[in-house]
Amino acid sequence: MARPPRSRPAAAALGECPPPAPLCPVPALVPRDQLRASLSSRLSHAAIPPLFWLYVSLTLFPRRLFRSTDFDYYLLVTQWPAGNGVTPTKYFTLHGMWPSRVGTAHSSYPCECTKTAFDESKLTDLKSDMQTYWPSLKGGGGNSGFWSHEWSKHGTCAASMDGQGTDVHAFFNTTLSLRKQVDIYGALADSGILPGSSYLGSDMQAAIQKKIGVKPLLGCGHGTSLTELAVCFDKQLRPVECDGSIVKDTGDEVNSCDDTKNVTYAGSSSPSPGPTPGP
After folding, report:
1. At 233, is the secondary structure helix, strand, or coil?
2. Is the pTM of this model over 0.85?
3. CA-CA to 67 of 20 to 30 Å: which in 86, 102, 241, 260?
């Protein structure tokens, strides 16, 4: 099952979360108490005791259906400017830091977990780095709109960065530090992989793995040109190998390159591969 796209549709409001993908045959994510009351009411006249059905439903349905803020790992998503129609740089810029899930729940993710509003005034000391390394590459709203969207949709769910998912500064500062730590451009350059040519996707992955110890995901939009590159981190913010359920999901926007074939590492800005990214 493909993960619901994190890029917002053109008509969606900035910051709007997509409906979660159905993971089990239930109509929607509902609290356990509400489900318990509903099941008891509907099954009170059934031949089989309602408590039996209640036990079955709460045992078989994944727990995270009832705990929508749960997540298993972070996905640090970077973008290659030239692959997104922007003048190339000597560094990858940030798309976001996304709390994500694995296994049968890999196609869903927590979204807008707290009501803490984006407050740009708390980011004064980070502003220069954010404008350089976390710019909006396309779409309306500019940098401020992009940052606000990333915070509301994903930052509010990144509780393990500050204990509660309410510290705007902690989220952006930590994400900027992790981007610098992995240094994607430098890792590729150290292995002789430079913009302006095509390379086997597996060679690009191996170059980064040599530098940071884990294999990244490569996103090619709808073609064969590198647009995004993502690295998985555990909740202690250590690079980890991405779970098999993620690696196999080649329909995901950050894992759409065929690593057995050549991937174009654009050396000049090329046409944008798709609609405005949302995360």
Report:
1. strand
2. no
3. 241
